[in-house]
Structure formats: C-alpha cells, structure tokens
Amino acid sequence: MASKVPPDLAIVELGSFKGKSTSYLARGKASVFAIDQWDSVSGNPIYNDSKTFKEFLEITKGLNVTPLKGNTSEISKVWTRPIGLLFIDAGHGFDDVSQDYRSWSPFVRGFIAFHDYDPKCQDLKFNGVYKVVETILKPSGLWTDYEIVGSIFTARRK
Ligand SMILES: C[S@@+](CC[C@H](N)C(=O)[O-])C[C@H]1O[C@@H](n2cnc3c(N)ncnc32)[C@H](O)[C@@H]1O
C-alpha cells in the first residue's frame, strides 16, 4: 500500500516504537513521518525505555523517515500537509483511537490503516480500534474499499 502513495503526499505513522513498521512504510516513494512519544516517563513504559528511540534511529537509518517526537494529538495541531497513507498504531483504547482518528483523518487524501483491528478483543485497553472503525469510520460515509489483511483494517477516502 505504501508503494501506491504518490511522492507529493506524506505517509504518517502514529506509534512507531522501534521502527519495524516504519521501515516497511518507507519502501514507497513518499516521505514517512513517524510520530511517537518515545518517552518512558509520559509514555507507556511497556513500550519505551531509554534505548527505544536509539533503536528506532538505527532501524530507519538511511530511509526517507522523519521522526516527530511527541504526543499524537499535540502534533496534529501543528500538522498541515495532505496525507496519502495514515497508519494508526499508537494508543489502542477507544479514547486514544477515536482522538487519533478525529485529529488526523481530515488530512487523509488516500488511505487510512489501523493495526490491531480485532472483533473478538475484549480487553478495554486494546479494543478501541474495532470500535472506532465500526461506530465512527464506517457510519461517517467518508470511506470506501474496506479491506482486512491479517490484523490491519484499511479504507480509502471517497
Ligand atoms: C504498538 S506500539 C507501535 C508499534 C509499531 N507501529 C510497530 O509495528 O513496530 C505503540 C507505540 O505508540 C506510542 N504511543 C502510544 N500513545 C501515544 C501518543 N498518544 N502519542 C505518541 N505516541 C504514542 C507508544 O510509545 C508505542 O511506542
């Protein structure tokens, strides 16, 4: 999907951790902006220790990737560029995912993708993805071409 994004549109990843998914997104021609708090104090200590950002920089070295360190909501307030592919994989609770969707989806001109779309998930910390897709994205009428590949849900802006 990253290869379908034209170079004049950005790819934005919310939640990059050590950069594994980021490096796949960077296989296309579009510039990738990787957003993560990379911070064990204000961020989730499960995902972040002092080495995490260093590992991210090593994995994405030489790729067309710009890291933007901070909270996804805060960065959306200063973001201005059209987005060809938005990959949402930051906080997975309903409030986190709905906030990320509402803040970032207005910039999307191409595709939106959510990691961890799981209809069977009962854990309130992780079931936000399925709920946001089913109760906010689909009823909005703004999206088409729904696809599920493994645990990733994708749609295209109409
Ligand atoms: C599941 S991991 C991302 C995994 C990565 N996409 C991959 O597949 O390799 C979630 C990441 O989101 C970050 N995160 C969660 N909520 C965030 C927020 N509100 N702002 C910025 N980063 C956030 C965490 O720091 C963590 O690194």
What does this structure look like?
With 158 residues, this protein is of the alpha/beta class. The chain has a single domain, classed as Vaccinia Virus protein VP39 (Rossmann fold, 3-Layer(aba) Sandwich), CATH 3.40.50. The chain is built from five helices and seven strands; from the N terminus they run βαβαβαβαβαββ. Strands 3-2-1-4-5-7-6 form a seven-stranded mixed beta sheet. The relative contact order is 0.17. S-adenosylmethionine binds at residues 15-17, 20-21, 35-37, 43-44, 47-48, 71-72, 89-91.
Structure summarized in a few sentences:
By secondary structure, the protein is an alpha/beta fold.
Number of domains: 1
CATH superfamily: Vaccinia Virus protein VP39
The proportion of residues in beta strands is: 25-35%
Per DSSP, the total helix count is 5
Uncertain regions spanning at least 5 consecutive residues:
none
Q: Give the beta-strand count.
A: 7
Largest sheet geometry: 7 strands, mixed
CATH architecture: 3-Layer(aba) Sandwich
* Arithmetic mean of pLDDT: 94
- What's the CATH topology name? Rossmann fold
Structural class: alpha/beta
CATH class: Alpha Beta
Which key terms come to mind for this protein?
158 residues, 5 helices, 7 strands, alpha/beta, binds S-adenosylmethionine, Rossmann fold
Which helices and strands, and how do they pair?
Layout: E1 10-14, H1 20-25, E2 32-36, H2 52-59, E3 65-69, H3 72-76, E4 83-88, H4 94-104, E5 108-115, H5 128-140, E6 143-149, E7 152-157
Parallel strand pairs: 1-2, 1-4, 2-3, 4-5
Antiparallel strand pairs: 5-7, 6-7
This protein binds S-adenosylmethionine.
